Task: structure prediction
Amino acid sequence: MPLKKGDFRLSFWAGSQFNESPASLLSPQLPGNESQTSRFIRLSGFLPIISTGNAGLQMRFFFSADTFLYVNKQLAISDGTATQSFAMRWNGFIRTSGGHEFSAEYYPGFNRVASANFDNIVFCTDQRLRLKYQLNRTEVFKISFWNHFLNRDFENVFLLPGASVGFIPRNMSSKAGQRLKWLSVYAGLARNMRMPTMNDLYWAPGGNPDLKPEDAWMADMTVFASFAENKCFKWDVKWMPYYSTTTNLIRWTPDSLSSQWNASNVAESRQYGFEATATATFQWSKNSLSGSLNAARVFAEDVSGTEIKTLIYVPDKTMNAVLSIRHGIWSGGYEFHYTGKRFTDGDNDRYMPEIFLHDVFVCVSRNLGSNKLSLSARLNNFMNADYQYIAWYPMPRRNFYVTLKWNWNE
Result:
């Protein structure tokens, strides 16, 4: 329902998770050699302060407290980390005659991290201000210009400009527009920046307090086509090519002698490729059958030296597929995940093999007045594949989740 001035929403989550997986490549004789325990608390809120047709001001806040413990019996390792974060988002806009819209977003964030892997407790604050102008003179073409002001710990201020244009022919009244009503095209160019994380800077050993922020220029496009053959069947496809160049890319690489990971900057790199998605849904009576497919082809290259090398641990191809069916209050489905090969060294002499994962899930939900109660179960990696995204870091084998969820005022 529409939110009015003074409406307030508050959300709270709490959870705990324990994973135990044998390091089968390092110590197959030690079942349960490695374990990971994580606990978290999340609190978020939303408050619209001004809500009118031509102006608005909203405030969101988010607080999280996380603890993580990693234990390796064979290597006698026990590392713990505790993180507390608080962030806000102020969002305001003004619309004027002639299709002009001005908006501003301010994101202050504060973080505290205490870790057995840090020499000291770390505090930091990130500030981001986004100013945007959008021209909505017609519903067919939309043009936007914006600039981000990024700052960490009230020191250097970085300017991140950008622009985008959209073409939506379905909003045309002419016959040509109606013939192209299935098509939407968007394109943009922007400068982006990623600040080093606390682990990048202070993890001991391997962190690098002298890391520079990643600085990238990126151009991308989205071509979206949507078709509704009838009320029962609809499908859509999306194609998203992109190209980016990055200076000072932050990368963790293992030392060839000690296998210790260290953070460093890659002087110059580029990434280009495309992502494609497709979805289809067929409905009849109280039933539905749906499927989705997401695939990506990525070229990630280190161009700092005289010879171009592929960046480590960036898969060349990925694919995810989901097939689900719903019958009344029951639903279930199957998921397939594919990850292509990843090089594990800067010379591209060694690589990790492809990964194939299979998951299944089932859910039952029921409306109770204005509330909704649901019970779901997932069986991940039911083929019990032994796989690693990072060399010598085994991932969980067959595992399952059971979730009970209650939604108020749905």
Notes: Helices lie at 175-179, 198-202. Residues 1-5, 22-29 have pLDDT under 50 and may be disordered. The first strand starts at residue 9 and ends at 21.
